[in-house]
Amino acid sequence: MTIIQTARYDMAPDTIAIVGGVVLTEEGLVRADLVIEHGLITALGTDVVLPEGATVLEAKDCIVGPGFVDLHTHLREPGKEQAETIATGARAAALGGYTAVVAMPNTDPVLDSAFVVRAVLDLGAVSTCEVAVAGAITVGRKGESLAPIAELAKLGVQLFTDDGSGVQHGGVARRALDYCRGLGVTYAEHCEDNAIAAGGVVHEGEWSAKLGLPGQPASAEEAMVARDLLLAGELGARLHLLHLSTSGSVELVRQAKHAGINVTAEAAPHHFTLTDAALESYDAVFKVNPPLRPEHHVQAIIDGFADGTIDAVATDHAPHTPETKDLPFDEAPPGMLGLETAFSLTFERLVLGAKMSIEQLFAVMSMNPARIAGLDAASSRPYGHTPHGKPVAVGNVANLVVIDPEATWTVEGSSLASLAANTPYEGRTMHGAIRHTVLRGEPVVLEGKATR
Predict the structure, then answer these.
(1) Rounded to whole angstroms, how far apart are CA atoms 340 and 336?
(2) What tens digit of pLDDT does each residue of 105-153 get?
(3) I want to staple 433 with a disulfide (CB 3.0 to 4.6 A). Which of 67, 221, 407, 442 is the partner?
(4) What is the pTM (predicted TM-score) of this model?
(5) Are 349 and 272 spatial neighbours (Cβ–Cβ below 8 Å)?
(6) Cα dist from 101 to 209, 335, 373, whole Å
């Protein structure tokens, strides 16, 4: 079949053809070529005639699908540009197959005002992936007075979170959930009860005892998950739970979904590929919040993806400078790089591990995150965006990734696009690689290399 449409998207410079691949369409995986003109997919099929002068992207033995969307990226700008900037983080995202990311608000200054949010969106507008913003729930992320949520929503902000710390006061959380419900935006929670966590820097259990480090029990996360699920159910609010890491949290969300509560959840690749046994080296590259957990928690996260309890893979990409990560373990900041390794880790553990299909991988890395972030449709807000997470179809904006499931590569922190190098996967051989990434019809990654 060949279908031609004459729509345009004038930000894209060239005519592109992607040939020889298997394409994720609305009907499923189909072997086809496609043509992109002025940023829009204009032809798709097995007998497509390539326009003269088109730039041809080879996709033999590859899968072409919607670009990935990350719900949870720390871009550090403003305030900590020595660890990451919007430009370098966006480049890392594109190399990881992402066409859109959501920037977290725990910057300096915090993303709790229209002025700062506009500055981030302006920088994101000229980056190699689309940058959306999660606004802070409370002023300064202090958990006290609500941020100007309505004003930020008018700019197109759809997610609100004090990520890096949970909202400790239940009354403030309830008020914020109710306010978000009225505005039609999503309250997203970093689930950590500080009184229960009690300053723990690793999971409380065997390895915290062996290492002599203060432990954080699983109940610190689960108590806030339970609280917010009750509040969301009571109010009819939309709740998104960030970086779940415990078996109890997964089960609480599973039960809440069965009860009809409007909740979505994400988990990060390090929480389904690493256990707290990695801490044996005392290397702070393995320090993350929430902490790495024992194997039964890891398996619960995997099972949560397999049965649809967990909706999205989110990287929690958290770059830090070497001098901060080299501090003693209990003083070093938590966080790991994630944008360039997330696809391979998810592909290995969940697809090659027979927990999901490649179509389901695109659901948890593209379609579901785009829907949760409100990036699945074009926006008419002052800072608009193109639609992400859509199956490949004629007329859709070409936000695409081409993955090579047979390729292997080795992680080298110093060679990653991020300004930081704090990857816990240093030296690990990965299966599955990003071959091309196309943003609004522009190839921003070609043969695994950034084009700008």
Answers:
(1) 11
(2) 999 999 999 999 999 999 999 999 999 999 999 999 999 999 999 999 9
(3) 407
(4) 0.96
(5) yes
(6) 37, 17, 9
**Could you say which architecture CATH assigns to the domain 67-372?**
Alpha-Beta Barrel (3.20)
Start and end residues for every CATH 2.30.40.10 domain found in the chain:
16-64+389-450
Binning pLDDT at 50, 70 and 90, where does residue 102 land?
A: very high
- How many angstroms separate the CA atoms of 391 and 66, rounded? 6
Q: Which burial class, exposed, middle or buried, applies to 152 when counting CB atoms under 10 A from its CB (0-12, 13-18, 19+)? A: buried
Tell me, what's the pLDDT at 382?
61
Residue of 193, 316, 376, 404 marked catalytic: 316
For residues 148 and 155, give the distance between their C-alpha atoms in angstroms, rounded to a whole number. Answer: 11
Cis preceding-peptide flag for 290 (omega within 30 of 0): yes
For 446, how many CA atoms within 13 A lie in the half-sphere containing its CB?
A: 13
Question: What pLDDT band is residue 378 in, cutting at 50, 70 and 90?
Answer: confident
Read off the amino acid at residue 50.
Answer: L
Based on the residue annotation, tell me whether 283 is a catalytic residue of this protein. Answer: no
Could you read off the pLDDT of 17-33 as tens digits, one per residue? 999 999 999 999 999 99
The dihedral built from the CA positions of residue 61, 64, 65 and 68, taken in this order, carries a sign that is positive
Q: Cβ of 182: how many Cβ atoms within 10 Å?
A: 12
**DSSP β-ladder status, 429-439 and 400-410:** antiparallel
- For the chain, where do the domains classified as CATH 3.20.20.140 start and end? 67-372
Task: Name the CATH architecture for the domain at 16-64+389-450.
Answer: Roll (2.30)
